[in-house]
Design goal:
5-stranded antiparallel sheet, Enbac_synth_compD-like, disordered C terminus, alpha+beta
Length: 229
Amino acid sequence: MLSLVLPAQVRCAEAFGDPPEATLLPQEEPAVAGAVAKRVREFTTVRHCARAALRALGRPPAPILPGERSAPRWPDGVVGSMTHCDGFRGAAVAEATVFAAIGVDAEPHGPLPDGVFDLVALPAERARHGALRALRSDLHWDRLLFCVKEAVYKAWFPLTGRWLGFEDADVTFHPAGTFHARLLVRDAPLTGMRGRYAVAGGFALAGVAVGRAAPAGAAGEYVVERFAR
């Protein structure tokens, strides 16, 4: 399903459970030593997906260790992103010569818990919420907003090494399944990101692929605005 929100050059793999063949490499085991069983299963399966995506990219299996703020550390020459929630684990990778960063997020497609939308949404986003609900009442736009901001952060942090709060991105949704996130951070190397969103299989999905150059025919869809190379 991640391929619905990412360009064709990105390789994706996903799982809807925790297959018995999913195992950790020895270098990864200390990262979850002493963790609860649910955390170990998520950590293990999402790395199983990451190695499947790496194989699809023509890369050998490699340990995916958590780095600063738990961001995954990918093999040299690779950019990627991982996501997991109840019932879904997924990973996406691409060549670093093609993309500067990738961000993906998946969430159960249901309304956010009470009070969370007000924490996530800017006043302008709350003002647009009613129009979105009128446009597609079957979509939980509050959950999609959360999903998009998570994906944007996952692409932002590897590029900048800086925190990005929910209040630092103003997201505009477009009916065709695309979004634009205007970044409200001063002295940042980029001003916005464009990506895609979708709902499939009971999950809300969002993806960003920050391009180093515009893919042919993409009309800038996946290219960051004014990215400092």
